[in-house]
Write a structure and sequence with these properties.
Layout: H1 3-27, E1 56-58, E2 65-71, H2 76-92, E3 96-102, H3 111-122, H4 127-140, H5 145-154, H6 159-167, H7 172-184, E4 192-195, E5 198-201, E6 209-210, E7 216-217, H8 220-228
Parallel strand pairs: 2-3
Antiparallel strand pairs: 1-3, 2-4, 4-5, 6-7
Helix pairs in contact: 2-4, 3-4, 3-5, 3-6, 4-5, 5-6
């Protein structure tokens, strides 16, 4: 190969590398990408649906701050985020309305069924009790159908009714529709929260924190306090 051809080859390789790096930077500049749509030019993120009676919520519907959480019972970060939620309850009480919505990730094999189990427990008035059980199962690595049935028995639920509900996938459509609803509002991972419409991606700690890039970030406490001042 002549010296001139070698130079041309080197230039071509450099151009390919530069284009490749540019592509990677463009599509991976954020850990959370926007929802995809077949008509990207016309796709618009919809405002998150306000909390209503159809939601599983804690607090009063007329609270000045609405905290909506899209979560996955099999997600370890969601399990960690429950600590922040408990701190919010203790600190702000009736000033904050908290709602839980389903967003089962496809990478989690038991996430949809776990969400269905929570809905089956809700039929018997024990959604939040099953919520606690499921996140405890998450932490101990015991998320499976038989464990869900055992949880129902431990909670004193009507086991026949619960088991029939779970086996029939009665609430699968509800779970998946909430996931689609969340995606349309910009949710792409869990946990994702909305504080009076402001989207927060990730398991935000209660107190202010330092991000991996060294930047100081507001924790959930400061964010809620800023909403209460408005």
């Amino acid at each position: 190969m002549s010296k001139q051809n070698k130079i041309i080859l080197i230039v071509v390789v450099i151009i390919i590398l530069v284009l490749g790096v540019s592509f990677v930077l463009k599509y991976n500049k954020s850990p959370i990408s926007q929802p995809q749509n077949s008509d990207n030019n016309n796709y618009q993120i919809k405002p998150v649906r306000p909390i209503d009676q159809a939601d599983h919520y804690w607090g009063k519907l007329d609270a000045p701050v609405q905290l909506i959480i899209y979560s996955d019972f099999e997600c370890p970060y969601c399990a960690d985020f429950t600590k922040t939620i408990e701190q919010v309850k203790q600190q702000f009480s009736d000033q904050v309305l908290i709602a839980f919505r389903h967003y089962p990730l496809t990478i989690h094999a038991e996430a949809v069924l776990a969400a269905e189990a929570s809905e089956c427990a809700s039929e018997q008035g024990q959604f939040w009790q099953m919520y606690d059980q499921l996140f405890n199962n998450n932490k101990t690595g015991q998320l499976n159908k038989e464990q869900f049935k055992k949880d129902a028995a431990d909670l004193g639920l009507d086991q026949v009714k619960f088991n029939q509900c779970l086996e029939s996938e009665k609430y699968k459509d509800k779970v998946l529709s909430q996931m689609i609803e969340g995606k349309n509002s910009g949710v792409t991972g869990t946990p994702t929260s909305f504080v009076n419409g402001q989207i927060l991606v990730g398991a935000y700690p209660f107190e202010d924190f330092t991000a991996r890039d060294g930047k100081k970030e507001l924790g959930m406490k400061s964010i809620i306090e800023s909403k209460l001042k408005k």
